[in-house]
Design a protein that fits this description.
Radius of gyration: 59 Å
CATH architecture of the largest domain: 2-Layer Sandwich
Structural class: alpha+beta
Number of strands: 11
Number of domains: 4
Strand content: 15-25%
CATH superfamily of the largest domain: Band 7 domain
Helix content: 40-55%
CATH topology of the largest domain: Tetrahydropterin Synthase, Chain A
Length: 382
């Protein structure tokens, strides 16, 4: 017989007049414990009766669904509950998310963005991590706690101080940007993604910094170090099957430690002055040496030209003398006279004297013939 058809004297814990534990003429109430109420089980006090709850639930359902009663009402209730339970398996995956279905807590399958369905809880459940969101981890620095100091960071020396390959200490603050590359591996293979990325980033940066000297790290090798850290981090996380992709490593600050930064800057200034003086000396040498070399080449070529000219003139004079001597031997008188006249012509051409024959007849007195001759010679030259 169902509980809802039982009377108050037929509940499963006995009643007040015929309790099996009471016996005798005192009735059921005399042998009950101090917290036993009328018609209720032990230690129930003022708690509601199960029969009353079921009756109240049935009455409410009969009021909502007319004609539902008895076993058919319970079946309708069960059908509604099963329908609600089945509908609870629908879930939506956003465009920036990746759906991961778990069956009894174990990875089952992945789903694409959109409306999807899985077996309702507790058989299956769905997790939708955001796979396009770029996450950031800062190493060596933290954002200020005070909202009024927005953009101000505080240094964390225990993370940022690193030893270089030439046994110097450098203060490196950098940021790592990462995304979820494989959702199942990300959810099940690592417990603390942010802590894992931070630990891998710090150890990787220390390894790369320890392989280089301090001067290249502070100047021209920063971008190369970022690429090396990114590649090594990705390889380490892939070996963990972490499902994380490193998108960028950005070195925010690379300086000597604060305690020695002033002295380090003085050393850098001295090195810059040394480099400037060396560059000026090289520039002067590059300007003077080619000029000296060019002057030496010019002098050498002039001397070679003078030698060639002198030798050629000597050869010409010797050849001319030999030819004259040959003519002289053939006709000595004529040759002697010609040489005499040529010599007079050469000598007299350099004098300002004018020789006038016939005792000067036909010449105007006081006429400056020498000046007229010099003027005519200058005009011909022009």
């Amino acid at each position: 017989m169902p509980w809802d058809n039982k009377s108050d004297n037929q509940n499963p814990w006995g009643n007040g007049s015929n309790g099996s534990n009471g016996g005798g003429s005192n009735g059921g109430g005399s042998n009950r414990g101090p917290n036993r109420g009328s018609g209720r089980g032990p230690n129930r006090g003022n708690e509601p009766d199960l029969d009353e709850l079921l009756r109240d639930l049935k009455a409410r359902f009969n009021g909502l669904v007319p004609g539902a009663g008895g076993a058919s009402g319970i079946l309708v209730i069960l059908a509604v509950l099963i329908g609600v339970w089945a509908v609870s398996g629908f879930y939506r995956v956003g465009a920036d998310e990746q759906g991961v279905v778990l069956r009894f807590g174990k990875f089952h399958t992945q789903t694409a963005p959109g409306l999807n369905y899985h077996l309702p809880y507790p058989i299956e459940s769905a997790v939708t991590p955001k796979v396009t969101t770029v996450n950031r981890v800062d190493i060596g620095m933290r954002a200020g706690d005070d909202r009024r100091s927005a953009g101000v960071t505080r240094d964390v020396p225990e993370e940022s101080l690193m030893l270089t390959g030439d046994e110097n200490i450098v203060d490196v603050d950098f940021s790592v940007f990462w995304v979820i590359d494989d959702a199942p591996n990300f959810l099940f293979n690592i417990q603390n993604p942010t802590g894992t990325v931070k630990a891998v980033a710090e150890s990787t940066m220390r390894e790369i910094v320890g392989q280089n000297d301090i001067q290249p790290i502070l100047t021209e090798q920063r971008q190369n170090n970022e690429e090396q850290v990114k590649a090594l981090m990705q390889a380490t996380l892939d070996s963990y099957n972490a499902g994380i992709g490193i998108t960028q490593v950005k070195m925010q600050k690379v300086d000597p430690p604060a305690a020695v930064i002033d002295a380090f800057r003085d050393v850098q200034a001295a090195r810059a002055d040394q480099e400037r003086a060396r560059n000026e000396a090289n520039s002067y040498a590059n300007r003077v040496v080619p000029e000296a070399q060019g002057e030496a080449v010019r002098i050498r070529r002039d001397s070679e030209a003078y030698r060639a000219q002198t030798v050629a003139e000597a050869d010409g004079e010797a050849t001319r003398f030999a030819s004259i001597y040959t003519e002289y031997r053939a006709a000595q008188g004529v040759t002697r006279q010609r040489i005499f006249l040529e010599t007079l012509e050469t000598v007299m051409a350099r004098t300002n004297k004018i020789i006038i024959e016939n005792n000067g007849n036909g010449v105007v007195p006081y006429l400056p013939l020498d000046q007229l001759n010099s003027r005519s010679t200058s005009k011909e030259t022009k």
